[in-house]
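forwarding from the other thread:

> can someone predict this with heme C?

sure thing
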Amino acid sequence: MKKIVIVAVLAAVAVGGYFWLSPSPATQESELGGEIIVPQFSALAAEGEEVYNGTCAACHGVNLAGTDNGPTFLQTIYRPAHHSDYAFVSAVQNGVIAHHWNFGNMPKLDYITNDELVRVISYIREMQQANGIL
Ligand code: HEC
């Protein structure tokens, strides 16, 4: 009887260890539902991610997931054909009067440099592409 218990415990530890050690897939979901895929970034986008996390993520969410303060970019309305790169430049330089949602206005973030903007946009586009927002 004791042996069976020990075997059962060892099996539980082995199975638990397998799940604990195996690489965990990205399980974060966007505010609209749907699992978020985080791709391998280009060097430019990887730098953009840092800028994004330091500024945009407070409202648009880590991994573009969205928050209570701003929309997720992982929805087709923000695809390049509907919100071009210029829309991103303008949003950051001029701010945005709320017109799509009820989160309120986006303040202008004119301390973001052009170099940073290029990187942030490249990060957002690579995230969108990986998640089928084309
Ligand atoms: C303080 C919160 C906040 C921060 C920080 C913020 N945003 Fe926004 N942003 C918003 C909100 C809210 C909206 C949605 C406005 C609407 O359409 O209702 C928005 C909308 C946008 C839009 C869509 C504009 C359009 O034409 O519809 C873009 C692009 C955007 N944000 C980019 C960014 C980027 C890039 C950053 C970081 C550099 C950023 N935002 C940081 C709150 C924020």
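The CA atoms of residues 101 and 133 lie 19 Å apart. thats all i got for now
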